[in-house]
Amino acid sequence: MMKSEMENDILKVLVTEEDLQRRVAELGEALYQRLEGKNPLFLGVLKGCFVFMADLVRACQLKCDVEFMALSSYRNATVSSGKVEISRDLHQDVAGRHLVIVEDILDSGTTLAFLKDYLLFKGAASITIVTLLDKPSRRTKAITADLAGFEVPDEFVVGYGLDYCQQYRNVPYIGVLKPEVYSG
Ligand code: 5GP
Ligand code: MG
Q1: Which of 46, 107, 111 to mutate to test the pocket of ligand 1 (most atoms within 8 A of CB)?
Q2: For the chain, which residues make up each domain, given as ranges?
Q3: Which end of the chain is more exposed for a tag (fewer CB within 10 A), N or C?
């Protein structure tokens, strides 16, 4: 086992590295079936997407390009403010493109509902939403993912790109932090 400074802060593992790898391979295959010949643009939602997206585009051997946006409705807290801000906008025209939105977790749905509308307004030909994690119990917006890796319970999770106060993104699995990490 590799040494980890962060291990002591983890209460439990929800999704192991092996399960992540297996599921990402399945998602890559499913995307290939859907989008073969369409030269899709993979659009990652920063920063949480970065680990998942790197694995997903390699698990999916489509001819494609990649783009990123940064959106925030979270302010270093574990609850959403409900308002979405674009902090990094598109750097290219997406009109007529088949887009694959890559998100770390679909929670209230505020972020993706906003993003989907925005991309349709920009003229996207189609939008496929892929989220690694889905917390359907917390949804307040009428939005569903086309492909979801794992359903998770109503707990704040970290790892595989997901942070708490910008930390723990490099934990290689999905886990829950000990309560004292939040209070401390
Ligand atoms: P939504 O707009 O769907 O409520 O929230 C989406 C964003 O909130 C996600 O992209 C993610 O950045 C953040 N988020 C929601 N739940 C969690 C969680 O359990 N852990 C972490 N690290 N971020 C979360
Ligand atoms: Mg996110």
Answers
A1: 107
A2: 18-155
A3: N
Atom of ligand 1 nearest to the CA of 164: 22
Closest CA to 54 of 21, 91, 97: 21
CA of 52 to the centre of ligand 2 (A): 11
- What string of DSSP letters covers 2-43? ---TTGGGEEEEEE-HHHHHHHHHHHHHHHHHHHTTS--EEE
* Residue 66, φ and ψ in degrees, nearest 5: -125, 150
How would CATH label the architecture of 18-155? Answer: 3-Layer(aba) Sandwich (3.40)
How far away, in angstroms, is 37 Cα from ligand 1 center? 32
- How many other β-carbons are positioned within 10 Å of the β-carbon of residue 139? 16
pLDDT in tens, the chain (184 residues): 678 999 999 999 999 999 999 999 999 999 999 999 999 999 999 999 999 999 999 999 999 999 999 998 755 556 666 789 999 999 999 999 999 999 999 999 999 999 999 999 999 999 999 999 999 999 999 999 999 999 999 999 999 999 999 999 999 999 999 999 988 7
